[in-house]
Amino acid sequence: MANDPTHQFLVNKIVPIEIGGIDFSFTNASLFMVATVAAAAGFLYFTTGQRGLVPSRMQSVSEMSYEFIASMLREGAGSHGMKFFPLVFSLFMFVLTANLLGMVPYFFTVTSQIIVTFALAILVIGTVVVYGFYKHGFGFLKLFVPSGVPGALLPLVVSIEVISFLSRPISLSIRLFANMLAGHITLKVFAGFVTSLGALGAVGVAGAILPLLMTVALTGLEFLVSFLQAYVFAVLTCMYLNDAVHPGGH
Amino acid sequence: MSVTPASAESTPFEIAQAETPATSHETDTHAAQPAGEVHTETGVAHGDEHATGVFPPFDQTTFASQLLWLAITFGLFYLLMSKVVIPRIGGILETRHDRIAQDLDEASRLKAEADAAIASYEQDLASARAKGNAIASTARDEAKAKADAERAKIEASLQDKIAGAETRIAEIKAKALADVGSIAEETTAALVEQLIGAKATKAEIASAVKTAAGE
């Protein structure tokens, strides 16, 4: 079943660990989480080791990612939002590195697991809620009451706002998860056409050219999606954090 | 033992069949071990054959492990970022920013110095030019005055000479004129004598000459 397009998402145990009857095994997913952290942190750490006044190419990449997220957060949540810079930067780098590592053949894509993206989304929304109440108390609830809405419409608007707030972690996590999942399945399916058509002789090989071209094009597209989804995740995190910093600021 | 990976997937009926010919001894050993072994084998089968039919990302049995390891790895990553990487990159960027600002200050200071040097140079040049002009005009004035004085002296001396010459000319002219009068009188006397044969008096001739000269 090498051509099973969902085979790549299977979580296999590497070191079985069980605590209190719950399975906490070190799996291939865990391995690639470690790899993601090692790759991202290692890259950022070693490229900036020189502390060059005139940056090398790789140091520029690290600095660009820093400044990219810093300006994104400053525009999204203002200068008060900059206290969340480590969180947004970590999220962006983690998701981006996990997405890109997943593009390597035979590598596991950490972000194609709904539980991972959901946990990251809950981390974002949890930060928003906890910080919002900590900083503004019940003033945080002004988030759900836009100013300038006539009293008659208020219950309707408030309920819409509440529903939209509650749907945020779901949309945030499913967007990333579904993009990675669908992209990898599509790639696998088209690549599978190539191998199965190739096995049919000369006509099959000729027919395999089209799916091969599709696979190449989709690989390029998937690299774009990898970056784009990390970017979207970070931008939305900035917007949601803006609500925690400025709850009345609709 | 008697349960091979292939038979792990077989129906309970088949397992029962497989176990049927087994001795009670074998059944006992099988009963003693199965929990762990069957568990791992079904795990492998599940992995390879996708037997349970659960879409892998929705397989809830993996959630606890993924959450734990995500918490460990992402927590570590967050710590590394916030304690090491972000301060370091922030420091690099700040140092560069400071250095650029410092260099710009230095450059603007140097530019001001250069401007001041140019201004003082221009001033020196202007004053030197003015001084040169002054010296030149003084020299010219002096030369002019000297030349004027010389000319005036020469002109004066020439004037003197001209005056002396004119006086002399006038004297000579007067003398000549006086001579002319006497010559005329003599000539007249001789003419009169020749013509009429009588001598005219000197006074008569003089008055006649004067009358003629007065005409």
Structure overview:
- The complex is a heterodimer of chains A (250) and B (215).
- Chain A has helices at 28-47, 57-77, 85-102, 114-136, 154-198, 202-207, 209-245, and strands at residues 13-15, 18-19, 22-23, 26-27.
- With 250 residues, chain A is mostly helical.
- Chain A has one domain (14-245).
- The N and C termini of chain A lie far apart (52 Å).
- In chain B, helix 5 packs antiparallel against helix 6 (202-214).
- With 215 residues, chain B is mainly α.
- Among the domains of chain B are: 1-53, no CATH class; 174-214, no CATH class.
- The chains are: A mainly alpha (250), B mainly alpha (215).
- At the A-B interface, strand 3, strand 4, helix 1, helix 2 and helix 3 of A face helix 4 and helix 5 of B.
Number of strands of chain B: 0
Helical residue percent of chain A? 55-70%
The multimeric state of the shown protein is heterodimer
Please count the helical segments of chain B. Answer: 6
> H/E order of the elements of chain B?
HHHHHH
Derived from helix and strand composition plus strand pairing, the structural class of chain A reads mainly alpha
Poorly predicted ranges of chain B: 1-51
Q: Are there runs of chain A of 5+ residues with pLDDT below 50, and where?
A: none
What composes the largest sheet of chain A?
Answer: 2 strands, antiparallel
Question: What's the helix count of chain A?
Answer: 7
Number of β-strand runs of chain A: 4
| Relative strand content of chain B | under 5%
Give a quick account of the main beta sheet of chain B: strands, pairing sense, barrel closure: none
As a percent range, the share of helical residues of chain B equals over 70%
Distance between the termini of chain B: 186 Å
Beta fraction of the residues of chain A?
A: under 5%
Helix-strand makeup class of chain B: mainly alpha
Rg for CA atoms of chain B: 74 Å
Q: Give the tally of structural domains of chain A.
A: 1
Keywords (chain A): ATP synthesis, Cell membrane, CF(0), Hydrogen ion transport, Ion transport, Membrane, Transmembrane, Transmembrane helix, Transport
InterPro entries (chain A): ATP_synth_F0_asu, ATP_synth_F0_asu_AS, ATP_synth_F0_asu_bact/mt, F0_ATP_A_sf
Organism (chain A): Shinella yambaruensis
Transmembrane segments (chain A): 29-48, 84-108, 114-134, 143-166, 197-217, 223-241
